[in-house]
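Dear Dr. H.,

I hope your travels went smoothly. While you were away I took the liberty of generating a structure for the chain from your last submission, since the lab meeting agenda had it listed for discussion. I wanted you to have the full record in hand beforehand rather than looking at slides cold. The sequence, exactly as received, is reproduced here:
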Amino acid sequence: MTFDDTAIDWLAELLSDTAKAEIMPRFRRLNEGDIRQKTSAADLVTEADVNAERLITARLRERYPQAMIVGEEACSDNPELLEGLGDADLAFVIDPVDGTFNFASGVPLFGVMLGVVVKGETVAGIIHDPVGQDWLIGAKGAGSHIRHAHGSIEKVQVAEPVAMSQMTGAVSWQYLPEPERSRLARNQTKTLSQFNYRCAAHEYRLLASGHGHFVVYNKLMPWDHLAGVLIHAEAGGYTARFDGSAYLPSHLGGGIIVAPDRESWHELRRELWAE
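The corresponding predicted structure, in token form, is as follows:
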């Protein structure tokens, strides 16, 4: 079966069903053995992550047996699963619980993210909020919207461009090397205010719906960004890597700046990296 826009409803329900079955029953009910460290004390995986990814993967394989499926936890065990993402005829990229640190800490800021890639291009993205029980959805050329739990649909739009001194945003400087790390942390004070949700799902939602202006990410794992960047672009925003090149599903480095428009991107790139 090939992918088309009619599948978005099915995918949205899949994420919701998975959250109800595997994620929310474990929220604030995790035992000590249900949480493990991956690379550090801030990089966790829980039984909810593992079981949610297994369920999503199994359902996708039933409907799309020829598709490439890239899940965060499967790739954590076998990084070679990422190979070929930029060339696959059809691929699904899954973050079963984005914001695992929050989830494991009992903080209700986490989401389920899924990106759809066709021949190297992201064509759809879905971010499901299991707590609010709604979806942020974008499709290539069709705009982005929030589908609320009560059934209404609300089109979203990025914030109007403003001077950097009036921007609110997030700089994920913890993954940057020195001296770049300290430079960006210092220069972020040129903006009006900052946020840090420790959850890309909710940070992309904030930007796509016009309630924040920018984010800067250095770590580019596809499950963290493909869905969000597509949704943000369809809401009118602009994203590029630090060197100005387009962000593609095959990219694992190079950082990105997500901004309301191209001019805002250039101002952020200039001022955040200023000596």
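Two observations you may find useful: The mean pLDDT is 95. Residues 7-23 form the longest helix (17 residues).

With kind regards,
E. W.
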